[in-house]
Amino acid sequence: MPPLSAPRCTLVGAGPGDPELLTLKAVKAIAKATLLLVDDLVNDAVLAHASPTARIVHVGKRGGCQSTPQAFIDKMMVQAVQDGEQVVRLKGGDPFIFGRGGEEVEHLRAAGIEVDVVNGITAGLAGLSSLGAPLTHREHAHGVVLVTGHAKPGDSGTDWVQLAHTARQAKLTLVIYMGVSSLEHICQGLLQGLPADTPVAIVQQASLPQQRQALSVLGDLVHTVQREGLQSPSIIVVGDVVRGTRAWQLQGESRIQRTA
Ligand code: SAH
Fold first, then answer.
1. Which atom belonging to ligand 1 lies closest to the Cα atom of 95?
2. What is the pTM of this model?
């Protein structure tokens, strides 16, 4: 166990984009920070809560630049904490849902630094809510799987066929992060276990003024996403709960098209 006075760092979830979805705890942590290390998908409006004297470092892929290497971010965090700074690592959504929060915690702990975590609303929750539907439903969905469409290099990634069978048998909603670039591969796999008319919602930039979305069915999803020009960052929700969106109900089952 590290001593009680061990230096500390705070990992803060900035939510999906809308600054009003920040928690009060996140606002307090941001206000207290002397150094903020900010990820790509964090809305700049959130930084209005920072002290005017705080140093703000963007470590994402802003302006088309390469993202800062993870090792560099880790080193900068450790050094700043050891120098006595109040360090906040600000991440989009929830810090522990994808986005490598777990790896950063391991690194900080290995350096003798204690980590406090402030949850944020993950994009996967904000996506379907923004269309007025729940991810679970007593009749249609007994659970939710949050899954990434982007495997680590060298990793074979998710077994989409297996996942589709499980989702069908167990009545699970699939919430896919980082799925746009591998959409064809994902759909090919899912269609081997789920019907082609399974409803799907795709929500780009959920909770932000520039949010766009489309409704489709699994068998037509690739086509829908191409036609609408939907891109990352997007959340893809697969399952019967999508029928609960206001737009699906307005359009009816017969013609599921764009809602953006
Ligand atoms: N920690 C983040 C996820 C980081 S992974 C969270 O909890 O939300 C990055 C992926 O999250 C993106 O590729 C996209 O799939 C999703 N994402 C993040 N913000 C989003 C938003 N506002 N709208 C839709 N998807 C978003």
1. 1
2. 0.93
